[in-house]
Amino acid sequence: MAISLEKIFQLKKHHTSVKTEFVAGITNFMAMSYILAVHPTIMASAGMPVGSVATAVALVSGIASIFMGLYSKYPFVLAPGMGTSIFFSFTLVASGIFTWQQGISLVLFSGILFLLMTIFGFREATAHFLPASIKLGIGAVIGIFLIYLGLKNSGIIIPTTHGLGMAKLNTPNIILTLGGLLLTIALQLRKIPGSMLIGIISITLAGTPLGITQWPDKIFSLPPSLEPVMFKFDFSGLTTPSTLPFIFVFFIGDFFDTLGTLLGVASQAKMLDKNGNLPNIEKPFFVDAVSTIIGSCFGLTTVTTYIESASGVSVGGRTGLTAIFTGLCFFTALLFTPLILMVPNIATAPCLIIVGLMLLDSLSHINFGTLDDTIAPLSMMAITAFSGSIANGIAVGLILYTFIKIVLGKRKELSPGLYLLTAIFMYYLAQQ
C-alpha cells in the first residue's frame, strides 16, 4: 500500500511521508471541525432541519476534500463557506426574498457558472473583474456580519426600542461565551491546533451543570436522513433579472475566496512558481466548482477551499494524501451526529466572532491614502451593518466605486464586466 501511495502522490519528491500526511490531515480536521456545529446552526435560521444539514456538511466536506486530494494532488481541504451561509440564511431567506429551496437553486447556478468559467479558461479575466478594494471590502463585509451574528447568538447584544443594546453581562450564557472567546483567542495566539474546536467543547461541557447543554441519549448513531434537504431545488421565480445579483454574490464570494486561499496556502508550502502562480491551478478550481454543485444537491451553500488548509501545511502536509485523510475524518464524524447536535448556540458564538475579526484583516490591504479606493469598501461595511443585508452593502459599494471613478475621469480603471455588474446591482436596488 505504501508503494502505491508513493507512486500516486510522489511523497519522496515532496519530502513527506504517509505518517506526516496523516498527522497533517488530522490537524486540518481539528482546525476546521467547528464547521460541523456552526454551519447547521446558521442554516437553521433559514428554516432548514439541523440534523439533516449536519449530515450533509460532514458528507460533502468529506467527498470534496477526498476529490481534491485525488484529482489535484494538493493538500487543500473543502467545506461549506461561512460567508455564503450567512448571506444565504439572513439576506436571502430570513428576510423573505427567497425560500431556502430557491436559495439552494441559486447556489446551483453559481456553481455551474464557476465550472464553466474554469472549463473555458476565464479564470484570469474573472480575477481582474473586480477592483482590489471591492474584493477586500467583501471580505470585511462578511466579517462584520459574522461578528454581529456571534454577538446576537450569545445574547450579548439584544434589540431595544432604540436599536441594538448590550445585555447584562452577569448571566450564565454570556459569561460562558466571553470565557470561551478568551480561551479560544488565547489558544489561537499560542497556535494550538484545533483551538476553535477546543473552545466549542469547553463551553459545551461547562454548560452542562447550568442546564444550557442537553446531552443526547446516545453518543453514536446513524446520521439523520438527508431526505428533507436533498434535491429540494425550486426554480420558480428565478428567471428574472433581479436574481442575477444574488448569483453573482455567491459566485464572486466562492471564486475569490478560493483564489486567495489557494495562493496563500500554496505560498506557505512553497508551491508557487517563480511568477507567483500555482501550477495546474485549474484543477483545484474545478474541484471547488464541482463540489459547490454537489453541495447544492445536498442542500448546502457554496463549498469552498478552506484557509484552515494552512494548518496541515504547517505540520508538513504537501500532497493530496493530506486532504484525503481530512476527508476520512469528516466521514467518521457522521457517526457522532448526536454530539454535534447537542452543541448550544453560545458554544459556536466565539467561532463566529473570531472568524469575523480575522476577515476584517482584509482592510489592512486597502490603500486608505486614496479616497476613491476607500469610500466604496467603507460604505459597503456601513450599509451592511445598518441594513442587515450583505447584498445591499455590496450593491451600494460597487455603484459608488463606479460613480467615483467616472467622476474622477478614471474610466480606464473600470472593466466592461464591472459596468455590467454595476447596472445589475442598480436594477437590484431599484426593486427593493
Task: For this entry, give a set of tags.
2 domains, 432 residues, globular, two-stranded antiparallel sheet, transmembrane helix, mainly alpha
Number of helices: 19
Share in β-strands: under 5%
How can the largest sheet be summarized? 2 strands, antiparallel
Strands of the largest sheet, in order across it? 1-4
* Low-pLDDT ranges: none
Shape: globular
What is the CA-CA span between the terminal residues?
59 Å
What share of the residues lie within helices? 55-70%
DSSP E strands, number: 4
Q: Domain count, please report it.
A: 2
Order of helices and strands: HHHHEHHHHEEHHHHEHHHHHHH
InterPro entries: Azg-like (IPR045018), NCS2 (IPR006043)
Main location: membrane
Family: Belongs to the nucleobase:cation symporter-2 (NCS2) (TC 2.A.40) family. Azg-like subfamily.
Protein name: Putative MFS transporter, AGZA family, xanthine/uracil permease
